[in-house]
Design brief:
Order of helices and strands: EEEHEEHEEEEE
Low-confidence stretches: none
Strand order of the largest sheet: 2-10-9-1-3-6
Structural class: alpha+beta
Length: about 160
């Protein structure tokens, strides 16, 4: 059985074992990828990366529309800490044989952003410190995409 996942950084808190459609505000750390590994195996394989990562400062930039669905977003500065965390996860996931649904947004193509929601509250230059990441499993049923929060990781570095 193949599983569809993504990793996010917390903007609004999520609850492990809850289902969301759509997810509350978040930053997609690694966009959707397929794996034969179950959630606990992905979580175990990536845990050390999060344990050795310090909390990350999100610095909000301009509004934009991105992706095939022309999603309205607030861009986020791609800091060295953000790049390092993303690239470490991608390297590890690649070693596990995952395949990405949108590989153009992985690695050098990663574009940190937070999708706009009705309660969006970020202006250019605003900052928040993020110390939590999540492993999300996506279940696609027709046009419905349920997101299950499988694991919460504390950035403790």
């Amino acid at each position: 059985m193949d599983y569809l996942y993504l990793f996010t950084l917390e903007v609004d808190p999520l609850t492990v074992c809850n289902t969301y459609n759509p997810l509350p505000m978040h930053l997609t750390l690694v966009s959707r990828f397929w794996s034969e590994l179950p959630p606990d195996a992905i979580a175990s394989a990536t845990l050390a990366v999060f344990e050795h990562t310090k909390p990350i400062q999100l610095v909000f930039g301009e509004e934009a529309t991105i992706g095939p669905k022309k999603t309205p977003v607030n861009l986020v500065q791609d800091t060295e800490a953000m790049k390092n965390l993303h690239l470490q996860l991608v390297e590890l996931l690649n070693s596990l044989g995952v395949s990405y649904t949108l590989p153009q947004f992985v690695g050098e193509g990663h574009l940190p952003h937070v999708s706009k929601r009705a309660d969006s509250r970020f202006v250019v230059g605003s900052r928040i410190a993020v110390d939590t990441a999540y492993l999300i499993e996506v279940d696609i049923r027709g046009k419905d995409h349920s997101r299950y929060v499988r694991m919460k990781f504390d950035l403790a570095g």
